[in-house]
Amino acid sequence: MRSVIPDYLAEVLESVESDTSGELAGYIPELAAADPDRLGVAFATVEGVVYGAGDIDIEFTIQSISKPFVYALALADRGFDPVLAKVGVEPSGEAFNEISLESDTGRPRNPMINAGAITVHSLTGAEDLNPTERVERVVHGLSAFAGRRLEMDERVCASEMGNAHRNLAIAHMLRSHNVLTDDARAVVDGYTRQCSVLVSTRDLAVMAATLANRGMNPLSGEQVVPEPVVRQVLSVMFSCGMYDAAGDWATQVGIPAKSGVAGGLIGALPGQIGIASFSPRLDTHGNSVRGVSLFERLSADMGLHVMEVPATARAVVRSNRVVGSGPNALRVLELQGGIGFAGAERVVREAVATSPPENRVVLDLTRVYSIDDVARRVLLEIVRRLTLDGHEVYLVDPESIVPDPDPGDGGRVTVVGSVEQVITPPH
Amino acid sequence: MRSVIPDYLAEVLESVESDTSGELAGYIPELAAADPDRLGVAFATVEGVVYGAGDIDIEFTIQSISKPFVYALALADRGFDPVLAKVGVEPSGEAFNEISLESDTGRPRNPMINAGAITVHSLTGAEDLNPTERVERVVHGLSAFAGRRLEMDERVCASEMGNAHRNLAIAHMLRSHNVLTDDARAVVDGYTRQCSVLVSTRDLAVMAATLANRGMNPLSGEQVVPEPVVRQVLSVMFSCGMYDAAGDWATQVGIPAKSGVAGGLIGALPGQIGIASFSPRLDTHGNSVRGVSLFERLSADMGLHVMEVPATARAVVRSNRVVGSGPNALRVLELQGGIGFAGAERVVREAVATSPPENRVVLDLTRVYSIDDVARRVLLEIVRRLTLDGHEVYLVDPESIVPDPDPGDGGRVTVVGSVEQVITPPH
Amino acid sequence: MRSVIPDYLAEVLESVESDTSGELAGYIPELAAADPDRLGVAFATVEGVVYGAGDIDIEFTIQSISKPFVYALALADRGFDPVLAKVGVEPSGEAFNEISLESDTGRPRNPMINAGAITVHSLTGAEDLNPTERVERVVHGLSAFAGRRLEMDERVCASEMGNAHRNLAIAHMLRSHNVLTDDARAVVDGYTRQCSVLVSTRDLAVMAATLANRGMNPLSGEQVVPEPVVRQVLSVMFSCGMYDAAGDWATQVGIPAKSGVAGGLIGALPGQIGIASFSPRLDTHGNSVRGVSLFERLSADMGLHVMEVPATARAVVRSNRVVGSGPNALRVLELQGGIGFAGAERVVREAVATSPPENRVVLDLTRVYSIDDVARRVLLEIVRRLTLDGHEVYLVDPESIVPDPDPGDGGRVTVVGSVEQVITPPH
Amino acid sequence: MRSVIPDYLAEVLESVESDTSGELAGYIPELAAADPDRLGVAFATVEGVVYGAGDIDIEFTIQSISKPFVYALALADRGFDPVLAKVGVEPSGEAFNEISLESDTGRPRNPMINAGAITVHSLTGAEDLNPTERVERVVHGLSAFAGRRLEMDERVCASEMGNAHRNLAIAHMLRSHNVLTDDARAVVDGYTRQCSVLVSTRDLAVMAATLANRGMNPLSGEQVVPEPVVRQVLSVMFSCGMYDAAGDWATQVGIPAKSGVAGGLIGALPGQIGIASFSPRLDTHGNSVRGVSLFERLSADMGLHVMEVPATARAVVRSNRVVGSGPNALRVLELQGGIGFAGAERVVREAVATSPPENRVVLDLTRVYSIDDVARRVLLEIVRRLTLDGHEVYLVDPESIVPDPDPGDGGRVTVVGSVEQVITPPH
Hints:
Chain A contains 16 helices and twelve strands.
């Protein structure tokens, strides 16, 4: 059987193919020479499967799409405080190449505008790296996100460096504020190299999936950056990733995203999927015209908006019933699915609402396949309170979803494999 | 048994209680006279249960917290296009009372700054409402969000109107750009009335829960505004709700939120919960000092950040096994949990990967408790393709999770109540 | 004999007449209905003679040309400090209706932009005037500048008041900063009345001439405002009078000037002349197209640029000679013209350079027709030092240019009517 | 006799000496090491006499005071249009190191801010100069203004170049807009050299006097730049020379001026005088604290404000009388002083007013010592019209103030040496 997903992607691709509006990035000769008709889209799941349609193996330069990944590297390499001291997280509502420094400190408003990204480049790796080592650290890190060794396009790099006037202006301004402490030209050179790294749409999808997968590359299994870093990066992408169109994107597409001037576009939906597209013609914001259309279509079709209430968030308490009668009666709360805070709350509520008169209470976790930390703690607190109220509490947990349960001070629980074991305790 | 949640809230409250930094809003005499020590926090679940600690029934004026709700009303009353034509959705990175109009059109940057909110007020109800009717429509709508009839604090209203110079300036500027078409003073008067509506922390939690619950008030069951409106409102809250501290909030707390100058603060986590706090002392951004601390604590403790990967998003394919052997062998894919796109993709993958040699294929939905639209469509497409590949396909769906399954052109499926029915078909 | 000046003006007028570019002010219906072809130009000398060509007696509303005059009234009525505390003097480089307030204080950048002019209106007359009295004080003051009682155009006034949204916005913003302390709407109403005062080109030329004539109306002889006020007003006109085209004007025309949206334009050259023109079509800066051309032509033809070195500033020492010989020899310094500091310096230099060996020194002022204060003091100091050096000093001053000369401590001087009287002293 | 002027300057110096407020420029190590107590003031007349008090022969770096002079050189070398195409003339109201580029073109707002001055440096000399040649052209030009060969302070230059981050930022930004077309770093290097030229207060006074003297160095007699260039430069100095304090300066001091960060300050009053002061401590605008006080004092004492009406502008018609009677009666208009337009107008008026019945009209220029071009033309036109009206016209012009008078079509005039020659014509 052929998978339906590539067919779906091919269909979506077809729906945008005829749109030839927009312009190639004109300010860099090498980019202006790109084939404007290239078109590709790819999905990578958090389990490392990649689906695609169109030109997903053509390589192009990563450009600004490097920004969130290198921001992640800097946060991982230096820690949050040193990076936040140098680069803010506030949306600027301005175009990508606006200087957008805070007036008093000279701190760039966020890491998605050039001023922030140039600063971030200088914050990767150890402080004492020389410029070549720093570029290597960045390329190595981007490669880890992609799951393969990435190379640089030297011609694009040289072409951009010859037209890097504005970035040089920004870097010297940052240097004048001591936001940059390295040589301004060397940092711009390194940043330009970072932007010249070659990726395919497939690579970008995997890189995005690594963000969606809490920082672990789903292909290689490497934890590229820690989970809190990923949360930070996705948050910043959500409000600052699409420059001065950030608000439109946040409302209409609702996927943390980043675009590049070579025509790439990525989106990462936490816990779900990485998406990438490639189409070189850009709109006036500098975002890929057909890329934006693709994402709008995908978000609408697939309910990928982060503010969309997932239909899956429901019904944690499958049943609340009494088994048997008399003094041996059991109160059985059967739970199901994955349990987070909201789910745990429902369990609490059931437990409180029924204020079970039965002596014995069973929490049946057989149909629960995951439970997060806060929910686990809430559950154990319920156990403890039920114990204190004089109940005997059982946890039916055949798959050890809650291993070694410790309900704390005064709590006591018996773990069993099935409700039957409580009904008819083994002699 | 007492619920653990109020205890938790009480504990969190206690942890911030000693912080008396910040100042009461000074520019409105009536607000400056508030009791600065009031402190409360409340949760409302999407099922309408409210937990709270502290002063959750004290009433205060809603102020700017009215902004997202009235934005929702305007979107519902007039539709998206007319509202978006007048008010943008881009973060401004500026303080709440900055004028922040787009330089060419005079369109306010977003509905969370005063210029946007004043415009939004004028866009509620039918165009031909008079000012009094418009205020009534707004109060009626806010009441629907709260689930009870709200009243206005006439003294605060009068006090604010006497100091509404800046809002009057903004409104006249909007009038000069024809963004406002009504009388500027009348609109400011109406907007001031909107801000003077009295709410308790409990009310705010329910109002936030209505947003978290796709626009349906979990107490009254009323669908106050349609679901797409809620998505729009939450997106805008996320990037613009905390004014010039929006980026800090988005990264550190990660909950769509809105603060009010009387000390209220709300957050809404889609599909999960509405949160509200009340503490009148404000930081320099105009946000409640202890409210911000409370939310930071709650977000960290409970993993409520929207960019947090929920631990629950996992393991949709519980097992993939063969039952029996020979020509009667069954390929059984046992699914579980709530299934969205990412989950459906895993099912597809299993189906493709195994490319089942068995003639009969069973999709067992017994442990599935929900499935969203795109996943349902993907599932049926699998069924269709398996049919076309010559398989006989069965859906085990005892709870009719997929009612009336139609796999489309060339597809065929048999729905049964249990795998056993396939193994041993009833004669 | 007919004067050559009206002919010259007629010729200049003709040279610009064919230019019909530009647009009538569109935002006020009454102004948009003006006859766009009107054209006039007038000179008024500091002695009150008016020359003109074209439509110099047609009346139109004064509009922004009122700003420098009302600024003068406010400075005269309240003194410099209270006015400077409320309105700055820095060019804003912005269009007339930009808000342009200092970010911290809310003080308008200068009195030539609307924000400044509205504030200035409120600073005329005594603080306790009611709005009607304040308007009367302004009209009375403008009339004094014009030398006749001016009236208001009630229709234009009403038309503008109905479209005063932006000015109302500005006024409320000023009120919010306590720059305005009166009711915002009442001040805008008063300011609009001020702008609706009717003047002819002839009136404007006389008003400008009053500024050129140190504040004294050359027709009526009334000292409308004190001289330091005029200096302040002219300085501000020079750098801020032409809005965002101020620099172009300062370099190319070089005359302190002010334009009005009804098509008027004035310039005042200190000590020389007031100029006014009228032509309603405006350029994109809001300045009269043909008015600007007229001023450029007049400035170039007549050397009116304030940074032009007047050809007249020369040759103060007409001769330096010795009359007679032996002990009776006279050193005679013959001075001429009007003597300011630079001239006095030349006299000092001659006196020092020659270090006259003659016992008797004569300063011959016969051909001097004026001497300013600093020059007079320098001259008397020369007299004193010559005395101390042992010379006998004579002042030939038949017209009492230096009345009652007092050379101070140790100085002594003899005043005579002619050099001859020194040569052959009367017995 | 000792001149009174040095004594006056010494007295003024003493009055400011005790003010030790302000700070040395901190951002350049070499400047921060200067002796903060240095104090000097100098006058240079348009005839090349220099008066001074205090440390007027100490050398320091010229810094921003080079800006107006190099602007003059660029205008002279390239012409107005190419320079105005690259650098505007509008005040920016911003600090010296603000970027202040026009948003669309990237053109610096004016040549007095760094962005403008850096651009102007690149516009000196021929386009094809190499950087070294360009610096030589600038130093040569500054030397011509000073009247002696100026040298560079290599240590200050190196120190500044090591801290030129902000200027490099500005230059790269200008390069990105193609306002600069040369290598950005080379231009900043050249500009830094320009700023490192060593001058004394005496030099600066002479340089300012060269501007006051229509571009001719009063010491060397060299016409350094043409007169229209000087007018342009003085106009721009007046409105932009003192950065964000330009308006205060224009109103209170009223002398076209420029300050430098090493403590220098110059002012140039057209036709009168160049002034310079030196005192290294700076106020928050970057202007010399005691320098500003000195200029305020000098302007107030000496009536040097450009908007001050010179007392000398008066009484051009000394007398208007009839000599003799009957057919031989003469109408004699005796003129005096320097005659500009305003003066000529008075002559016209007298001629018209009296509409002389006498056949013979005499214009007696004996007491006129100068007449500018427009006045000469007006005078000859009077002659022509009087001729056409049937009069016989005589010009008494013993000193050939109006050489070769040509009254034009139909005019006729007889030039004589004295009125007596008309009364009793020589036989």
